């Protein structure tokens, strides 16, 4: 993140991109200021949680006035480094990988998949949805050539750790892991795992037990 950012809770960190997106929507609608209650209504997040999240960054608003929308948009843009483009590599072009290539972060012009890898691709590569796709044998060469630090992993489970070890060896900084494997990585590498079956089971549990988001804070 750009500048000196205070250490904040992980739950708050995960909400920052959501704040940025909704504040952009308010700005695009011509809204000049917004209250925590209005944000709460739009985002379906408790207003007290929003105020607590914002308090980690100092005085972002004024009592009786609320928050200046354009100021917050610029603040979160800087905080999230949205002025810098982030190139991403996709490893694994199965059903989920293909969906990523078709979507390719259309609503976020600062993040884009610029290369993909799949065993079915010819050595010289091919193009899918405008993205070059190469075989895994060229992974190290291409990722280092493009200076990529972030990878989306959608490979079969049996290949996940092996591919990860190769990414560690070339100092890739982060992996968005869509395999159910808990990857073994060094402390300096960041891994966010999204296991869709676990997320679904968690949702079912919350519904059956009437667990509210506010209870998870």
CATH architecture of the largest domain: 3-Layer(aba) Sandwich
Spell out the helices and strands N to C. Answer: HEHHEEHEHEEEHEHEEH
Main sheet properties:
7 strands, mixed
Q: Unreliable stretches, pLDDT < 50, 5 or more residues?
A: none
- Quick one: how many beta strands? 10
Distance between the termini: 24 Å
User: What number is the mean pLDDT?
Assistant: 86
CATH level-four homologous superfamily name of the largest domain = NAD(P)-binding Rossmann-like Domain
CATH topology of the largest domain: Rossmann fold
User: What form results from the Cα inertia axes?
Assistant: globular
Strand content: 15-25%
Number of helices: 8
Quickly give the structural class. alpha/beta
CATH class group of the largest domain: Alpha Beta
Number of domains: 2
Approximately how much helix is present in the residues? Answer: 40-55%
């Amino acid at each position: 993140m750009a500048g000196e950012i205070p250490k904040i809770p992980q739950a708050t960190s995960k909400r920052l991109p959501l704040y940025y997106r909704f504040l952009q929507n308010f700005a695009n609608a011509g809204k000049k200021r917004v209250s925590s209650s209005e944000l709460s209504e739009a985002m379906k997040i408790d207003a007290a949680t929003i105020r607590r999240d914002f308090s980690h960054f100092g005085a972002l608003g004024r009592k009786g006035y609320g928050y200046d929308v354009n100021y917050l948009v610029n603040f979160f843009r800087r905080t999230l480094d949205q002025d810098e483009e982030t190139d991403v590599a996709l490893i694994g072009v199965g059903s989920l990988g293909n969906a990523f290539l078709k979507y390719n972060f259309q609503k976020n012009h600062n993040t884009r998949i610029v290369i993909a890898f799949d065993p079915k691709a010819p050595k010289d590569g091919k193009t899918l949805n405008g993205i070059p796709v190469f075989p895994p044998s060229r992974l190290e060469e291409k990722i280092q050539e493009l200076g990529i630090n972030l990878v989306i992993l959608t490979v079969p489970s049996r290949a996940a750790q092996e591919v990860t070890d190769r990414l560690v060896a070339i100092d890739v900084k982060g992996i968005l892991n869509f395999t159910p494997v808990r990857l073994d990585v060094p402390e300096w590498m960041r891994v966010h795992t999204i296991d869709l079956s676990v997320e679904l089971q968690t949702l079912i549990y919350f519904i059956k037990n009437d667990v509210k988001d506010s209870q998870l804070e």
